[in-house]
Design goal:
With 338 residues, the protein is of the alpha/beta class. It has a single domain, classed as 3-Layer(aba) Sandwich (UDP-N-acetylmuramoyl-L-alanine:D-glutamate ligase). It is built from eleven helices and 15 strands. The strands form two sheets. Strands 1, 4, 5, 8, 9, 10, 11, 12, 13, 14 and 15 form an eleven-stranded mixed sheet that branches. A four-stranded mixed sheet has the order 3-2-6-7. Helix 1 crosses helix 9, helix 9 runs antiparallel to helix 10 and helix 10 packs across helix 11. The protein is globular, with a radius of gyration of 19 Å. 45% of the residues are buried.
Length: 338
C-alpha cells in the first residue's frame, strides 16, 4: 500500500458563530486545519495511508491537533514535539456580498522552530510513494524552508513523486520574498497546482505575445513553457467565478507537455469555503494514484471533491470515495478535451 507524506503547519482555527464579525463575537468555534494537513486528512478518508510531518508544542493545544489528525486516520509518528506556540488563525465567514476574512497569528509557532536535525529523512522517505507540500510552508521562515528542501532531496534520492501547491499568500510575504524560494523547489516537483499568475509572476515564465491567441491558447502556451522548463508531468488548477460569498462556480484544468484538459463548470452553494483548494489537490492526487494514465479522471475527481468540500464545515473534507463517485455519476460530470 502506498505511503503518502505531507509536510506543513496545522493551526487552531477560531470562527465567530452565525456569520458574525470578530468585533461582534463573544465566543468562537474551534477547529484545526492547515493546507498540507487537510490534504492528508482527505486522502486518509479516500483510503490511503497518510503521514503528517510537522512540529507542535508539547501542550494540550498540540495534543488536540494530534488528536484531530489521528481521529481522521492520519499517522502522526513524524510530528515533532517542541517549542511552546501553536499557530492560530481567525476566520470571519462571509455572507452574500460580504467576503470572508482571515487574520493569522502564527509568526512564532512551533513549526518555525523546526530543526532539520530533528527529522529522520531516510526513515520517512525510503519507503514513501508521494510527498506533498505547499508554498505556505515556504513562507514560514528559513528553518522550515531548509527542512522542505531536504525533504525534496530525499524524495529525489528515493524516487518519491512530489506534488507542490503554489498557494501563494500575500498575508504571509511579498512576491519578491517568495520568488527565490519557489524557484528552489520547482526542480524537484513532478506535479504542481498553479495559476497563470504563479507562472508569470513568481516563475517569470512569459507566454508568447500575439493578438490572435485566445485566453485558453495563451494559458496553454504559458503552462507548456513552464512544464518544459522544469520537467513537470502536469499542472493542475481551478477557475472560480464568485457570484456571492455563498454562491460560486468552479471549473478545473490539467496540462501536460502534449495535452490540455478542461472540465465543465459546476455552480454550487457554500457552507464553508476554507480547504476547498486542499480538497482539490487531494482529489487529484487520489485520482492519479488510482488511474495514473487518466489525468482527466483525476481532474474531475479533484473538482468534485473541492465542490463538495464547500458544503462541509471546517477545514477538512471528510467524504469518502463513494461520496465523490456518486456525485460524478448522478451529475454526469465529465472532462472536455481541447
Amino acid at each position: 500500500m502506498e505511503k503518502i507524506v505531507t509536510f506543513g503547519e496545522i493551526m487552531l482555527r477560531l470562527t465567530p458563530p452565525e456569520y458574525s464579525k470578530i468585533n461582534q463575537a463573544t465566543s468562537f468555534t474551534a477547529n484545526y486545519g492547515g493546507g498540507e494537513a487537510n490534504v492528508a486528512v482527505s486522502l486518509a478518508h479516500f483510503g490511503h495511508r497518510t503521514f503528517f510531518l510537522s512540529k507542535l508544542p508539547p501542550n494540550i493545544l498540540g495534543d488536540s491537533a494530534i488528536q484531530h489528525l489521528r481521529g481522521h486516520g492520519v499517522n502522526t509518528d513524524y510530528v515533532i514535539r517542541g517549542s511552546t506556540t501553536l499557530g492560530i488563525y481567525f476566520l470571519e465567514t462571509g455572507f452574500g456580498g460580504r467576503p470572508s476574512k482571515v487574520i493569522y497569528n502564527r509568526k512564532h509557532s512551533a513549526i518555525t522552530r523546526i530543526e532539520a536535525e530533528e527529522v529522520n529523512f531516510e526513515e520517512i522517505f525510503r519507503d514513501a510513494t508521494w510527498f506533498h507540500v505547499s508554498g505556505i510552508s515556504l513562507a514560514l521562515g528559513e528553518k522550515v524552508r531548509k527542512t522542505v528542501l531536504l525533504c525534496l532531496k530525499a524524495c529525489k534520492e528515493y524516487g518519491v513523486t512530489v506534488s507542490f501547491d503554489f498557494n501563494y499568500r500575500s498575508k504571509l510575504w511579498t512576491v519578491e520574498e517568495a520568488i527565490p524560494q519557489y524557484r528552489k523547489v520547482m526542480p524537484y516537483a513532478d506535479i504542481v497546482f498553479a495559476s497563470e499568475f504563479d507562472c508569470e509572476t513568481i516563475l517569470s515564465v512569459k507566454a508568447d505575445s500575439g493578438a490572435l491567441l485566445s485566453p485558453n491558447e495563451r494559458r496553454g502556451n504559458l503552462f507548456r513553457k513552464t512544464i518544459n522548463k522544469y520537467g513537470l508531468r502536469y499542472i493542475f488548477g481551478t477557475d472560480r467565478i464568485i457570484y456571492s460569498a455563498t454562491e460560486n462556480s468552479l471549473s478545473a484544468y490539467c496540462f501536460s507537455e502534449t495535452t490540455e484538459k478542461y472540465t465543465d463548470p459546476i455552480r454550487f452553494n457554500i457552507y464553508d469555503r476554507i480547504g476547498g483548494g486542499d480538497a482539490f489537490a487531494a482529489g487529484v492526487i487520489h485520482g492519479l494514484l488510482e488511474k495514473p494514465d487518466d489525468p482527466a479522471w483525476a481532474l474531475n475527481f479533484g473538482l468534485v471533491t473541492s465542490v463538495l468540500k464547500h458544503t462541509i464545515y471546517g477545514d477538512v473534507c471528510v467524504l469518502n470515495c463513494e461520496d465523490i463517485l456518486d456525485y460524478m455519476k448522478n451529475s454526469g460530470v465529465k472532462g472536455v478535451e481541447r
